[in-house]
Amino acid sequence: MKNNTLAEFYMMTGKFSDHNDFKNKLTRTLSEGNKVVQFKSKGITESDEYLELVGIAESVCRQFNAVLLLATSVDLFQQTNADGLHLNSRVLFEYEKRPVSNEQLLSISCHTLEEMKQAEKLGADILLLSPVKATSSHPELEGIGWQKFSQMIQHVKCPVYALGGMKVTDRNDAIQAGAQGVAVSSLWK
Description:
Blueprint: E1 9-12, H1 19-31, E2 36-40, H2 47-63, E3 67-71, H3 74-77, E4 84-87, E5 105-110, H4 113-121, E6 126-129, H5 145-153, E7 160-162, H6 171-176, E8 181-184
Parallel strand pairs: 1-2, 1-8, 2-3, 3-4, 4-5, 5-6, 6-7, 7-8
Helix pairs in contact: 1-2
């Protein structure tokens, strides 16, 4: 996938009260501009409910021509029509080869150059590199800053989004540092 076909904002979904609230928030967010959407399913333990929500997300993302990535298991992902799978760095080294077909996108979160190289070996199409700034979700990690971010992404060929403490207003700094854009959850409202 070419860099110019990806949006500058990579959005992670957040909290919602029910299926209707989920659909409304996703629709509202995508109506404000194109984004890559990562559906995070924290707290959803029932696979039937998860698949229902994915169906809603697929429909809304198609309507807005947005890319839909699922942060889930390969098994659940394969039961969907989503555009791609997102893996976190904790499972990155469990795979020896690309866990999805080449027609599907593979997005991977990384924190180190070693993880970035492993992601590339797996054929990742998108990387998220974090934390660029200090973040409340991982207070034990110090942000790497824009200079180190820029240096690290020079070692990979695929598009990289800046993650960790990012706000919409960090978009210009990210682009200037060589990123595809920023990964943010604050767009979800």
